[in-house]
TrEMBL record:
UniProt name for this protein: Uncharacterized protein
Domain of life: Eukaryota
Source organism: Pleurotus cornucopiae
Amino acid sequence: MVIAIPVEIAHIIMAYVADKGSLANLLLVSHAFRLLAEPLLYYDVSFLAPFRQDRGGWGQSEGRSDADISAVANSFLHGITAGGGVCARYVKRIYLPGVAFRGAQYALFQSILQSTPNLEDLQVHFAWWMEAIELLDLRAFFTGPRSRCSSPPFALKTFAWYTPDVQPSSLGLGWFLSTQKSLERLLLPNLVAESCPPFLPTLPRLRVLHASTIVVAKQFRKANQVTHLMLERGPMGLDAAGFVDVVVCVARRSSLHEVSAAMAWMPRLECLEIDTSRSPIPKTLSRVGALKGAAKLRHLRFFPNQVLLESEAFHSHPWDYGDVANIFNTLPSLTHVSFLLSPAPTNYCEYCCFIKGSARPVKLRALRPQVSKDDLYEWWDDWIEDYAVVPFEPSDPRMGYQGDLLS
């Protein structure tokens, strides 16, 4: 006897199927399974090459040839436009390599992006090889002679342009942003001040901003209330009128002195991530008293500067729990201190995290795998809620840590 289960429970069960291959197989089981699996299969689409596990997900293992990218794009385009374009309406997030806007791929991805009316998240990542910088006119891309649109058919919540080898032209970028008034997250870490649009539109919902420098960030702050700010390069020259609403700040290329000077202009700051500035962890920890001005700071994260040699990586420096305990005493509002474990053994970002009142650290692992090294682990997510506690590996000296030196 076949017992039918409520469709809500079937949706919950289907949500546990994570890999695309299994979802594709479920399409062939029955019409009912197809209706359940199809939206999940097309929701999140990536044209990026896979990671190498032995490198902890820091880069793509190899690139795809132009012919391979064109074949995959062509097959995907036929899939979402067949049957009246039903599947195209399921697409909410697309990850593209920079080469998607070059050569034979240009027209294919132009058609794909013009066929996804419900797209909410568009991210363009660094290709596996570097070529000469080219300019892309986003206006011509969406409204050119071959286009069927007068503007993008979607209303994005997230727009990220990480690749440096294809740069959006200033006028084209300004036009594109003016059509995306629903943007909540704008990630342009490679955009220089000279390439900023001459007339920036007001983005009333913008809360997350990743900019190359503070100069670029200031141009986007007008009429916006940025609460999550990341700067790719220092120095941090903030002012009171600019970023008073910032709650999360990530400054991986600014010195501790620059960051501490900016704290006066961010009275609501709760989460701060800084790099180790090529210094041993104990030395960095000894200077954290400079952050006393951050009265609401509750989570301090350290990101090891990628310029460091392997022998200089932070885990090679011994440090004691007393160093961390002193931070909690110096900054009373602080509840968490965490350090990025790099390179991670998986494609999930991991941190060694100390919690106030506990001498033993825990390992926090992101609940969502990183797409590429460019997405920077979606730093705007909640630093606790979006991570799970997982055990240290048996060989890790931090397992069972009781205050002895970490190595």
